[in-house]
Amino acid sequence: MGKIRVKTIGDEEAELKLQGEHKKKKEARIASLTDARRNEAKLVQKEDIIESSDETGEVTEVKKNKKYVKKTTSSKKTHSKSYSSVKEKVEAKRTYSVPEGIELLKKLQRAKFDETVELHITTLEQGVSGHVTLPHGTGKKTKVVITTEEIIAEIEKGKIEFDILVAEPAIMPKLAKVARILGPKGLMPNPKNGTVTANPQDLVKKYEGGQINFKTEGKAPVIHLTIGKASFEDKKLADNIKAIYVALGKNKIASVFLKSTMSPGIKLTF
Question: Alpha-carbon distance 146 to 26, whole Å?
Fold first, then answer.
């Protein structure tokens, strides 16, 4: 015969009570852990989650599990032999004058295509924005479109065939229905960046003539700008850089790195 387990009513009540206490303790531990993680996330989010690259001065930010965390990278990076060979030409602790930087940049080209030249600027504060007309353009044809009801209908279908969208104030309420599409792409017309105007035709001419907008990133005081092509003459690149310095104001700049699509960064004096 099998063993018979005898349990009194009092014992059963005590066991249930004990189980209830264990359950409460477990829930309390989970709640405490959740609170701790939540507090940790808040603290990390408040931190300056800025990781400046020695090469470009760019800011890296990673969003993971709805928490902002610092991106950890190994100090030892593996690069191709061609990259390493040009990287050796850049003195890591040196800052170059604009003419020196441009001259060096030309020696770092290793792609078969005409590489885009960029400036990566770290500002002393966030919220820096404005626009500037580059004397020699960016080397890329900018397609600017004036907002109409037909354009809005195309956007709703996911058809976006422009680099910049400008609008008159009167049509802005109708643009609201496609804001969720344009906003994440940075294409929503906005009075602050000058893309909402009573004279859109004049604005189209300015953008096609080399005007570009600049603005620091949402959570970091960094601006990334295209300033030309590697095939540009040195003087043209220098003129474009000077125009950006003037528009930004040297007193707002912390550091500037010059690079092309596939080159390491070159730190410039300003």
Answer: 61
Burial class (CB in 10 A: 0-12, 13-18, 19+), 261: middle
Instruction: Express each pLDDT in 27-84 by its tens digit.
Output: 666 555 555 455 444 443 433 333 334 444 444 444 444 444 555 545 555 677 777 8
Looking at CATH, the fold of the domain delimited by 48-139+211-270 is given as Ribulose 1,5 Bisphosphate Carboxylase/Oxygenase (3.30.190)
* Of 192, 191, 235, 207, the residue nearest 132 (C-alpha): 207
Q: Given the DSSP bridges, would you call strands 266-268 and 129-133 parallel, antiparallel or unpaired?
A: unpaired
Token pair 């690149």 is found at: 237
**143-209: CATH topology:** Rossmann fold (3.40.50)
Q: Cβ distance 197 to 203 under 8 Å? A: yes
Could you tell me which residues come within 8 angstroms of residue 118 by beta carbon, excluding any fewer than 6 positions away?
224, 225, 226, 227, 258, 259, 260, 261
pTM for the complete prediction? 0.61
Sequence spans of domains, the chain? 10-46, 48-139+211-270, 143-209
Question: Radius of gyration over alpha carbons of the chain, in Å?
Answer: 28
Let me know: does 142 contact 223? Beta carbons within 8 Å.
no
- CA distances from residue 222 to 26, 59, 95, 102, 108 in whole angstroms, order as listed: 45, 7, 19, 21, 24
